[in-house]
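Q: Here's a chain of 229 amino acids. Please give me its 3D structure as tokens.
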Amino acid sequence: MEANRQQWNEDLKTLRGLLESGSDHAGALRLCLRLHAQTHSAALDGAAGWSFQDEVLEGLSLPALRVIPPGGEHSIAWIVWHLARCEDITMNLLAAGTPQVLLSGGWAGRVGGGIVHTGNAMDAAAVAAFSAAVDLEALLAYRLAVARRTREVIGGLQSADILRKVDPARMALVTAQGALLPEAHEVYAYWASRSTAGLLLMPATRHNFVHLNEALRFKSKVVKGLRQS
């Protein structure tokens, strides 16, 4: 599947240019939606073709998602949570000014794991505790629900919205709702400095891709560890 990842990266460069130039608003949104879909389950949009998430999860049992591989900082379950939370927060609170799916859909109680923040700046013990406690089926369903909402947000963007900077009042909600740990100040500063275009690139597309690459690297180590245990 390496060719799919190479093409995805090339298409992201095209998307960046379209967003920055404003030359083809409709084309930019179509491409953004396709790249976004390819970082989620094919259940989101089977017409998007290749699914990076499905490639990562293929052949893995649910318990395997809890494993933190040797030399790794995270489990695949943590990665899925982190991706879902960053996308939920940025696309809803920051880009659209609407409630987080985690809260509006009652997902916090269903997913469990004991946290509502993105997972940035967690220590190793906290990551391990989350990975052991989270409801994996609910976690995957939550990420899919976030993705569906993101598509609504992207589809509703007007050309004037693309280069608009994040509203400081919306950033204040990130803190008020505990969406980031206080120690994750660099993430806060990064989001606060972005435009909508910046959020579409990172995290709604590229951030997903980067961490799915991380999960793919973990996969063989996770499988090997389970076989040896």
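Q: Can you summarize the key feature?
A: Residues 206-228 form the longest helix (23 residues).
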